[in-house]
Amino acid sequence: MGSEARPELVIVQGPTASGKSDLAVRLAERFGGEVINADSMQVYRRMDIGTAKPSAELRARVPHHLLDVVEPDEPFSAADFRSHASRLIADIQTRGKRAILVGGTGLYIKALTRGLVESPGGDESLRRELEEQAEREGVSALHRRLAEVDPAAAARLHPNDRVRIVRALEVFLLTGRTLTSWHEGHGFSEQPYRCLHLGIEVERALLVRRVEERVDRMIEEGLVAEMEGLLVAGYAPSLKAMSSIGYKEICAYLAGACTLDEAIGLIKRNTRQYAKRQLTWFRKDAEINWVEYPAKFDSICSIVMEFYN
Asked: Averaged in consecutive runs of 10 residues, what is the pLDDT profile of the chain (309 residues)?
């Protein structure tokens, strides 16, 4: 398919607390666009403060999509995201608007713009066996096991990324092929959109300060009460959504495992580490145009205008 026939898609990406939401809204205002969320946590309802969803003021300025899509105990995968987002992009284009994708979940962005690997379906009994091993011996034991059979996947995944470690082991044990080999066979060569990737460049010390200020703001805005409400509503701490950064630490505090100050310190540390992993992921993508925001907003607009023209 020729590039002229493909829908145009501007993508704003980068680490947490880099200013992505604000930039996406300003670009949508400038170029007649609508914002599509590409953050894997912001799809959950009832989880607003800890996921740093765009403020009501930002959301009122331009239409936002793929926020508050599912409940915390409902599954939502990269494939689900791709299905929803592709329909939204088509609808936005049909209405004469421009889609602005924004988020820090690199896997979601890659799934939409490069396709998904058709790896084998799951096996419930095998997955349960792996989950039980993680409970007995810790996720690190599964990570070491993965390193023995698929060192590339083990190097790519954080040692605490239980869901993806279990999945990588499950694929190997079911098929005898590593998840890495499935990925290499796919090639991620699909290109359904003509994309402009914008990555926000933030000096490390400034990013650390923004992360810490954001966490303090989350506490002031009621993150503890938000977590209490989720628990009262019956959402188990073991849910994938509830075990994300911000929620798992506050849950530990509410369970008496640590003080509030200790929980806040852990959230800040874990968020800093997450931002570092995001940057590592995005730095591998040669298509990203790294920009300074808000200092160079006018030059960013020139880049976007040139892309559209």
From this structure: 73 96 98 98 98 97 98 94 97 97 94 81 86 91 93 87 88 87 65 96 96 98 98 95 95 98 98 93 93 97 97
Q: List helix spans (H) across the chain.
A: 20-31, 56-61, 78-94, 106-114, 124-137, 139-149, 151-156, 162-175, 179-186, 204-221, 223-232, 247-254, 260-283, 297-308
Say if CB 211 and CB 268 are below 8 A apart.
yes
Helix, strand, or coil (residue 215): helix
CA distance 105 to 45: 18
CATH architecture of 124-186: Orthogonal Bundle (1.10)
Distance CA 97, CA 157 (A): 37
Indicate the domain borders of the chain: 3-117+188-308, 124-186
- Specify binding-site residues: 14-21
- Which residues are documented as binding site for substrate? 16-21
Q: In angstroms, how far is CA 82 from the centroid of its own chain?
A: 13
103: left (phi over 0), alpha (psi -120 to 50) or beta: left
Answer yes or no: are the C-beta atoms of 72 and 230 closer than 8 Å. yes
The CATH number that domain 3-117+188-308 falls under is: 3.40.50.300
pTM of the model: 0.81
Binding site for ATP: what residues are annotated?
A: 14-21
